[in-house]
Write a structure and sequence with these properties.
By secondary structure, the chain is an alpha/beta fold. The protein folds into 3 domains: 95 residues, no CATH class; 320 residues, Aldolase class I (TIM Barrel, Alpha-Beta Barrel), CATH 3.20.20.70; 35 residues, no CATH class. The protein has 16 helices and 17 strands. The strands form 4 sheets. Strands 5-6-7-8-9-10-11-12-13-14-15 form an 11-stranded mixed beta sheet. Strands 1-2 form a two-stranded antiparallel sheet. Helix 4 runs antiparallel to helix 5, helix 7 packs parallel to helix 10 and helix 12 crosses helix 14. The two termini are 37 Å apart. It binds pyridoxal-5'-phosphate. Pyridoxal-5'-phosphate binds next to strand 5 and strand 6.
């Protein structure tokens, strides 16, 4: 029997009320408070009580995943902030210092603002990004927070007030309008923050309009979420969870797949009874669960953690999907893993699982030109190279193309790589320059898209229940009565 739990949240202001952190001394807590000025901190009672091993502090991966660590800031910045906190520096001076440090952490990587937001009739479409032809990202306004924050979050600027919330949308109408005009889109990905922070009633208002027959080309609705890991009760207990299951079933009954893109970083997140029940309920309601996370130093930079997670996912009927490379933002210096090592960890884990788990792809970099997979490390005619492959491209013509970069033991991100074999730039460099100059990154043509258009309606008749014996009454019915 899994009991319901009442959600209790802690932020930087209320961190000291977490009784468990008394295992840390005054000095460690001061550093933690200093880092929490710069990077977002938010945690809940489930993560504190069930997922963190307080006998293994600070090394515990769940502690590293959720609590600010001194190594996340450079030593000078940390010392400055610690000094200011200790001397009770005035708020304005502290804020100015905090902002200066935040702007030094590359808050807006990968052309997210400039290239990914589509313009229609000269206006930015609110709450949307459209980078890859088949998939639109949608940011519902009320879904822009989480049940807890990850210390490595690449969307951290929005949680510390660096982004105004204008990038998110209160309404679904502009999305629907856009999708009616863009039949090339077959998947809508709700993202945040975490859309599962929304009550079902609100989530339904965003999702239901997409189920209209006019948008039959939308084959899947995805919801990117960490709730199955950080607050599985969202799916298991209470009226709102039941309402959510009905919504998921409605999506399925409208002939679409609802894919829960679940973010699991550490095996512990899948090992509690309630976490497993959450996956089971999602599947019973007709949703698919696909699992993804970045590879993060101090958190999950070991192969056994990944192999174990993938095996558990298979056991639960969930699908391993992506292993990402830590992005070039925030406390990346603390978290990053060199690309060669990411490849080694991925490979060692991949070797330990069956083909059923090898639906996972990675390590993958979500960078400006696309999703770039580190597909191998090879030696070709005496030159050691990374074999790279686009698994998504800003230009669909790049997808599934391989290319080669010089091997570099220190490289942690795409922009540090140089073309191999004496090439002076990568094959897509000129096209990417043109996209930047013109600001138009959606290079696919509507004519290309017509071929993709299909009308497709699924009518599945539920088999009649009660044929033969009726379990409740013990009566028998003949098939032609039913
Ligand atoms: C990863 C990603 C998608 C989805 O790509 P799939 O390979 O279909 O999962 C869509 N848009 C953006 C911006 C992404 O980073």
């Amino acid at each position: 029997m899994i009991h319901e739990r009442k959600f209790q949240v802690y932020t930087a202001q209320t961190m000291d009320r977490i009784t468990q952190i008394s295992v840390l001394d005054e000095d460690q807590r001061l550093s933690m408070r200093a880092v929490a000025q710069v990077l977002p901190f938010r945690i809940n009672n489930y993560v504190v009580e069930e997922l963190i091993d307080w006998d293994n502090i600070p090394d515990d991966p769940m502690f590293q995943l959720t609590f600010p660590q001194p190594g996340m800031l450079n030593p000078d910045d940390l010392a400055t902030l610690r000094g200011m906190l200790r001397s009770n520096a005035p708020g304005t001076a502290l804020n100015a210092e905090v902002r200066r440090i935040q702007y030094g952490l590359n808050p807006h990587p990968a052309g997210q603002k400039s290239l990914n937001v589509p313009h229609e009739d000269g206006h930015a479409v609110p709450g949307m990004q459209h980078k890859y032809r088949e998939t639109v990202l949608f940011f519902p306004m009320a879904g822009q927070t989480c049940h807890a924050y990850c210390t490595y979050c690449f969307r951290w600027p929005q949680f510390v007030g660096l982004d105004d919330m204008k990038f998110a949308s209160k309404e679904v109408a502009p999305l629907v309008q856009y999708l009616k005009r863009h039949k090339e889109v077959t998947s809508v990905l709700f993202t945040g923050g975490d859309p599962m922070i929304m009550r079902t009633e609100l989530l339904r208002q965003y999702i239901e309009p997409l189920l209209t027959p006019e948008l039959e080309h939308i084959a899947s609705i995805r919801i990117g979420t960490k709730a199955p890991a950080y607050w599985p009760y969202r799916f298991t207990h209470g009226q709102d969870a039941d309402d959510l299951m009905r919504l998921l079933t409605d999506i399925r009954d409208a002939g679409r797949d609802c894919a829960i893109m679940a973010h699991y970083s550490v095996r512990k997140e899948l090992e509690t009874d309630v976490a497993r029940l959450a996956v089971r309920r999602l599947r019973d309601a007709g949703a698919t669960v696909r699992c993804q996370a970045p590879l993060i130093r101090h958190v999950n930079d070991n192969a056994d953690n990944w192999a174990q997670m993938w095996r558990t996912q298979i056991r639960l009927g969930a699908v391993p999907y992506y292993m990402f490379v830590e992005r070039d933002t925030g406390a990346r210096g603390y978290f990053e893993v060199p690309l060669w090592q990411a490849y080694e960890i991925f490979t060692e884990a991949y070797r330990q699982v069956t083909g059923l788990a090898r639906t996972v792809r990675g390590p993958s970099m979500s960078c400006t030109p696309g999703k770039v997979l580190i597909d191998g490390i090879a030696e070709v005619y005496g030159e050691k190279v990374f074999v790279l492959k686009f698994i998504q491209g800003r230009d669909p013509a790049w997808t599934n193309r391989v290319f080669f970069a010089k091997f570099d033991r220190h490289a942690t991100w795409m922009d540090q790589l140089q073309p191999a074999f004496g090439e002076h730039e990568f094959f897509f460099a000129e096209d990417l320059r043109r996209m930047r100059e013109t600001g138009e990154a959606r290079v696919w043509l509507p004519t290309e898209v017509e071929a993709l258009e299909e009308t497709w309606r699924m009518e599945i008749e539920e088999p009649e229940r009660g044929m033969g014996s009726n379990a409740e009454t013990g009566e028998h019915e003949s098939p032609d009565q039913a």
